[in-house]
Amino acid sequence: MRIAYRVETVRAAEQELIARLPDGALMQRAAAGLAAATAGMLGRVYGARVVVLAGSGDNGGDALYAGARLARRGAGVSAVLLAPDRAHPDGLAAFLRAGGRVADDPYDVLAAADLVLDGITGIGGHGGLRPDAVPVARAARGSNALVVAVDLPSGIEADSGEVLGEALHADATVTFGAYKPGLLVDPAHAYTGAVRLVDIGLEPHLPSVPDCEALQHADVAQLLPVPTGESDKYRRGVVGIVAGSARYPGAAVLAVAGALHGGAGAVRYVGPAADDVIARFPETLVSAGPPAKAGRVQAWVVGPGLGDAPGVEEVLAADVPVLVDADGLRGLDPAVVRDRAAPTLLTPHAGEAAALLGVSRAEVESARLRSVRELADRYGATVLLKGSTTLVADPGGRAPVRVNPTGTSWLATAGSGDVLSGLAGSLLAAGLTARDAGSVAAYLHGLSARHAANGAPLTASSVASSLTNAWRDVYA
Ligand SMILES: NC(=O)C1=CN([C@@H]2O[C@H](COP(=O)(O)OP(=O)(O)OC[C@H]3O[C@@H](n4cnc5c(N)ncnc54)[C@H](O)[C@@H]3O)[C@@H](O)[C@H]2O)[C@@H](O)CC1
Ligand SMILES: Nc1ncnc2c1ncn2[C@@H]1O[C@H](COP(=O)(O)OP(=O)(O)O)[C@@H](O)[C@H]1O
Ligand SMILES: [K+]
Asked: What is the protein's quaternary organization (predicted)?
């Protein structure tokens, strides 16, 4: 599991640790880790041209101390001080002692740099880069140098993943002590490049429950439902799919395709696209409806391609877990969802989330963490917000928000969400909690999409058929 903590928590842990260490020792740990990581990226340190962008806080201090270490190993290191009279005094002194030089002209040194250390702001920065830092950041990005963000890319919001102004796009980020939510969540995540975590001994001082977490293969492997000798198709779970319409029969087929790969023992389809479903997947149990007469299911999926067809409230009346997606989300009444005793999983994309929250799509996309938490609280349900970084939140901030680390932007194609809803519903029927079902489904779906795309456009059908490979990856 990759876990992330908000700034307040990181600072509290740092204070505890600093109290046990000699003066400045923690910053030296950070700088040593940063210098080692940077040296690895450079390959050859001797003779390399490095530029340190140093703001007025400790982030600049880290960068200056790391610059000093690189200078001692023979790199030519220049510093661009964003606020010369407020640069970290000890860091700057160490930098100058090691042979580092303060640049006369920032643009000259940036144009010739091999690598830039971005130490403008770290966890103390808010509101995007200040105007005086913007041209320097742009020159760094416009150069041929590798840009390495110190702790986090300057200008992003560490806690929320928002980018409220200009930020410096890094090729890599070296972060200290713990991941921060903004390193995992878009839009900020898009500025980080590859993220490396430097251990500075913070872990024992951090709480056991983080703010965000990202599953990895081993976590998913533990959560996947696997049949045993005692299993039969009913014990493995039956998932019911209420989807498709005369206008959108394909949504039914794709949701069923996802469900067939999700580990449930059987898939029931209820609706007008039964013939299309059977033609494609003869293993499906089909009926024309209504859902209450379809036979026993352990979880329902309702919504993909339904159009205006009614039936969502009928499904929500069932006393089993229900996943509501797509058309099922339109005008969904929070009171109806909150009153349910069984779990509910809502799976909106940003546009659907925006409609439910009464805000613009852009607002949801710029503040994904806040939006998913707010929706979960409003509906008293687990919410999976789809998009460039898919998030899964439980209501009441009970558990860390899950951030999906897999996926590809090739997934932005019609029908891929239908596959996801069927897959997540199948995992619900197999007995996973809404939070686990949503996050495991997003993980497999993203992995599968990478198989299906492999550098070229994918189709939603191919995402479904590649799910088998995604399961195998996770077990391998
Ligand atoms: N306290 C410690 O011992 C440690 C601190 N660490 C470093 O310290 C950093 C946090 O340091 P600080 O709390 O001093 O804060 P930062 O250095 O992140 O930023 C605060 C400074 O940046 C300026 N600033 C704020 N917003 C800005 C903006 N939008 N554009 C330009 N300048 C802006 C402020 O005037 C302030 O001087 C961490 O990110 C990490 O790099 C690490 O070295 C780990 C150990
Ligand atoms: N830019 C993106 N990067 C990664 N994944 C994306 C991106 N855009 C969409 N996706 C994923 O693609 C799927 C699209 O679902 P959705 O919007 O419901 O489409 P549809 O309704 O056509 O099936 C979701 O799983 C979503 O997370
Ligand atoms: K930084």
From this structure: Homotetramer.
